[in-house]
Each structure stands twice: as C-alpha cells, then as structure tokens.
C-alpha cells in the first residue's frame, strides 16, 4: 500500500466506546449510517446499552465527544431499565398476562405444570430455570401455531413453518416463503396481544409491507388490534426483563 493511500485511509470505527458518568462506565455501540444527518442516541433495554448513530462522513472523535457530553442522559435512561429477572423459585412470571409464582417441587415426578396460579417445577433445583424457560417456549409455540393456523385459513394463505425465537428487535417476522417467526416472550403477554401479532404476521403473507392495504387486512382479521398495539408500546419492553 502506498504512503499516500495510507495517509488518506480511515481507521476502522470501534464497535463500542465507554462513557463514564459519576464514576460509572456505560457501554455505547457505534453505528455509522448513510442516511443519518446528525448524531443521535437511544438505549436498548434488551442489551442494556446505548447506541450512537452518526453520519457516514462524521469523525469518530466528534461522535465520542457527543456521547461524553450526554453521559448524564445515557446514565439516566439506562438506570431506568428494570433489572433482569431469573426463573427461580419464588419469582413471579406472567403467563398469558397473569402473574404466576414459580414453586420448586423436588419430591414430585414430571417436569413443569400449572396449578392454582403457580408454575410448579419438579426435579433438581439446578434445572428449575431451564425447565421454566422451556415450558414457556412450548406454551408459546402451542398458542402461536393455533392462532397462525386460524388466521391463515381465514385469509387463504399457506404457512410453511412457525418458528419460536428470542428476537430482540421485533415480535415477529414473515418471509415470502410462508415461514413465520415469533418471539417466545409473547406468551408472557395477555392473549389478545399474542393474537394480534399472529394476525399481523399472517397478513404479511398477503402484503409484504406496511401499506394501508396491509393494515386493512390486519384490522379485518383482528378488529381489536389497537389495544394490542397500545399494550405493546406501554409494556412490551418489560417482557425482555425475563431471562432468555
């Protein structure tokens, strides 16, 4: 590589930087975006960090300075994010929107079952968390497959596969091949929220966009979509408090 080329070559951006406020260090991810016109900051509750978006031609030194000047803002927003909750005995977990206490039953046979408002877990204590998580994912798959099948039949479309994942940035996604993926965390929400998400993703098999026609299809399938959307805006972030 020539000396002139090396002089003009930009060093790669760091993936993250650290901003300190009152003696506490906070991680900030760096994203250089072609369409960005200014520096912007946002926080991510799932990864408990901040993201700084910057214009394509901006200097990384200016981005770092911007983040440091907003250290108090970053600290305040991140400290508002609720702590993660583990699936341990005594913890309360919403199942279909209804709080259920986790209770360990080492003397019982089986794995996980629901009884009198509790999630009961048999077996050794070290496996309680994993068994509760697996149980919730099975329940999510059952409810989402049923809702997806119901809406697909009404709309006359073919669903080739229903997948259950732990998607941080979206509650569901649909592909033109007929495959639909959902976040298992929807089983923590009230049933009308899960129902709306199923209608939303099935509607994408007719319209792979968010056009007015798409939203008309969703509303025909799920007339109660607005309360569900409002619930997700108000409470959706809290569903990520629980360990994945």
TrEMBL record:
Q: What sequence ranges are listed for the domain YgjP-like metallopeptidase?
A: 38-235
InterPro entries reported in the protein's UniProt record: UTP_pyrophosphatase-like, YgjP-like_metallopeptidase
Pfam families (alphabetical): YgjP-like
Organism's domain of life? Answer: Bacteria
* Cited Gene3D superfamilies: Metalloproteases ('zincins'), catalytic domain
Q: What is this protein called?
A: YgjP-like metallopeptidase domain-containing protein
């Amino acid at each position: 590589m020539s000396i002139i080329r090396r002089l003009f070559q930009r060093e790669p951006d760091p993936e993250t930087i650290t901003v300190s406020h009152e003696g506490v260090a906070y991680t900030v991810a760096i994203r250089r975006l072609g369409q960005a016109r200014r520096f912007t900051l946002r926080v991510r509750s799932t990864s408990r960090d901040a993201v700084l978006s910057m214009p394509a031609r901006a200097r990384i030194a200016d981005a770092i300075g911007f983040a440091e000047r907003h250290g108090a803002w970053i600290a305040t927003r991140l400290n508002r994010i609720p702590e993660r909750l583990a699936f341990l005995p005594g913890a309360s977990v919403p199942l279909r929107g209804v709080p259920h206490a986790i209770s360990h039953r080492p003397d019982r046979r089986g794995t996980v079952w629901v009884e009198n408002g509790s999630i009961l877990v048999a077996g050794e204590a070290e496996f309680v968390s994993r068994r509760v998580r697996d149980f919730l994912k099975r329940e999510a798959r059952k409810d989402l497959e049923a809702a997806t099948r119901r809406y697909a039949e009404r709309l006359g479309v073919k669903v080739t596969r229903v997948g259950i994942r732990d998607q941080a940035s979206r509650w569901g996604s649909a592909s033109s091949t007929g495959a639909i993926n959902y976040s298992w965390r929807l089983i923590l929400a009230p049933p009308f929220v899960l129902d709306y998400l199923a209608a939303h993703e099935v509607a994408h098999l007719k319209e792979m966009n968010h056009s007015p026609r798409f939203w008309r299809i969703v509303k025909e399938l799920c007339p109660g979509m607005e309360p569900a959307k409002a619930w997700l805006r108000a409470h959706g972030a809290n569903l990520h408090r629980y360990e994945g």
